[in-house]
Design the sequence.
């Protein structure tokens, strides 16, 4: 299915009755978080993709910050990926994506919070220098150590146990993009998953096979192409 | 009761059985958020105040980020004010501080999230320039408009309705400090609550009378003194 992002001078498509209106961008990792929850819950949703470089006037009118992801629920405009994921999990309890214990819930949320360092290091690597720099790459690799340790300590296939839960889905979008470093750098830099992060390597294979993840998966080559164009100041959103 | 913050070369005090270990700093608005929830819940807690300029080695060992607030629960180290508040509310359900509807819960969390702008504007006003600058003051006043509007639209005394809830407690610490602008600037700058934000003015009086808030309240003069010393590079924590 062709994906077209709406830009300036567009008109908001009419809402589909019985379906959640979801504002997204195909290459946004934060929007992907919410998409994965919608997929896992099997929630009917009707996606409007937003061109973040040429934001539609009608979108800025309903959301001056102009960010994605966002949802309309019961005529209320809702944003923030982690809050949206939490909301969807509570509003549509099956399958549950969070532990029932408050203690395990905060421990999970702290893992997601601490994962922010990986996201920051990845962005620094890909977007702030002309070419990939070795020290930034090393920093990114180092940021993965606590995540590997966490999964080893949990002793389960997924952070959620036998199945992915919110931790798995909230961090996944960056793992999909980590594999883009290889094609993006023409093979010069490759995250040593098998050697240094064997548990995460296994987890990645399982995640790619997960239905919610698989149906929205983009190849490393395609991600690399998006990053290259974005850095050149010509971001390409449509697929 | 005298409050003494622990510094370098200190030893962590033994934990008190049956009491939550709470790491705090007397003038930290984020720590105050958690303190207010502990107060509202009537939870026995044993506070260790941390000198954030001369952090104890033992604290950096258990929490390299060295931040407050933090709690120990069931031997787990927990941090992040909003996550801690959410955890305490779920772990100790009485009195409930969050709505039962997932939709109202995310709407409340989005209000707290959007309040971040007030915090940023306040910090900019107080800490980034030698004297208070008019444009920063105007920016801070403008940032309060959506909060006043939100309370007017809710049509209730508190954001939580007839009683304070997490929204009230999570934003309160900054309102306590907003009144410090007056003594801090020797009366040159005063937030025009009565004129421009009548609903928030009323809410402030009710909040100061709330038991959870009252028992941890610090006067504007005392806050102003703390800011003055902090800016001079000589932060004073003890009371």
Sequence:
């Amino acid at each position: 299915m062709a994906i077209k992002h709406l830009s300036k001078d567009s008109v908001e498509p009419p809402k589909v009755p019985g379906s959640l209106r979801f504002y997204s961008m195909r290459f946004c990792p934060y929007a992907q978080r919410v998409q994965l929850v919608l997929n896992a819950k099997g929630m009917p949703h009707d996606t409007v993709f937003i061109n973040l470089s040429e934001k539609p006037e009608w979108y800025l009118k309903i959301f001056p910050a102009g960010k994605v992801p966002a949802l309309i629920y019961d005529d209320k405009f809702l944003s923030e990926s982690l809050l949206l994921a939490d909301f969807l999990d509570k509003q549509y309890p099956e399958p549950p994506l969070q532990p029932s214990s408050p203690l395990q819930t905060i421990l999970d949320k702290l893992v997601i919070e601490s994962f922010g360092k990986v996201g920051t290091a990845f962005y620094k690597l890909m977007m702030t220098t002309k070419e990939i720099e070795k020290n930034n790459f090393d920093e990114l690799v180092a940021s993965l150590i606590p995540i590997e340790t966490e999964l080893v300590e949990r002793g389960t296939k997924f952070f959620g146990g036998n199945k992915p839960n919110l931790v798995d889905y909230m961090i996944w979008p960056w793992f999909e993009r980590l594999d883009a470093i290889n094609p993006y750098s023409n093979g010069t830099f490759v995250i040593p998953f098998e050697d240094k992060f064997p548990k995460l390597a296994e987890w990645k294979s399982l995640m790619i096979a997960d239905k919610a993840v698989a149906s929205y998966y983009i190849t490393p080559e395609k991600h690399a192409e998006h990053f290259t164009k974005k850095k050149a100041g010509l971001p390409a959103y449509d697929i």
In short: Chain B touches chain A through 20 residues (CB under 8 Å). The beta strands of chain B are 20-24, 45-49, 70-73, 76-79. The first helix of chain B runs from residue 29 to 41.
